[in-house]
């Protein structure tokens, strides 16, 4: 799985953030299981994220987001949760809202995202 696309990068960072909250620690195997990807694919992706300064990995293989990685992961996760809330308010089922939010969060403009946030806050 290539990680040169912004969407893949965002997905990996968001998954690290979510897995860390869920499990307390994150290793490459956790990410591989989360996405159902091969370990070599995840290893390559983590190397790219590490070289970009978005994650660190200690000698035991535990992955941490850097300050910049946390900033990016939090922004993606924020868009994700707002979109889920918005879609559910429209009557979309939880499962479909989750799936659609995963797709939409990467392509929606900041202007549209801000308008959705304002709309939800008014509700």
Notable traits:
123 residues; mainly alpha; Arc Repressor Mutant, subunit A; Diphtheria Toxin Repressor, domain 2; 2 domains; two-stranded antiparallel ribbon; 6 helices; elongated; disordered N terminus
Per CATH, the architecture of the largest domain is Orthogonal Bundle
Radius of gyration: 15 Å
**Cα end-to-end separation:** 40 Å
Structural class: mainly alpha
CATH topology of the largest domain: Arc Repressor Mutant, subunit A
Number of distinct beta strands: 2
Strand content: under 5%
CATH top level class name of the largest domain: Mainly Alpha
Helix count?
A: 6
What is the chain-wise order of helices and strands? HHHEEHHH
Summarize model confidence as the mean pLDDT: 92
Low-pLDDT segments, ≥5 res: 1-5
Number of domains as seen in the coordinates: 2
Q: What features would you describe in this structure?
A:
Helix 4 (67-89) packs across helix 5 (94-104) and helix 4 crosses helix 6. The protein is built from 6 helices and 2 strands; from the N terminus they run H-H-H-E-E-H-H-H. It has 123 residues and is mainly α. The chain has 2 domains: 6-71, Arc Repressor Mutant, subunit A (Orthogonal Bundle), CATH 1.10.10; 78-122, Diphtheria Toxin Repressor, domain 2. Strands 1-2 form a two-stranded antiparallel ribbon.
Topology:
Blueprint: H1 6-23, H2 28-35, H3 39-51, E1 55-57, E2 63-65, H4 67-89, H5 94-104, H6 110-122
Antiparallel strand pairs: 1-2
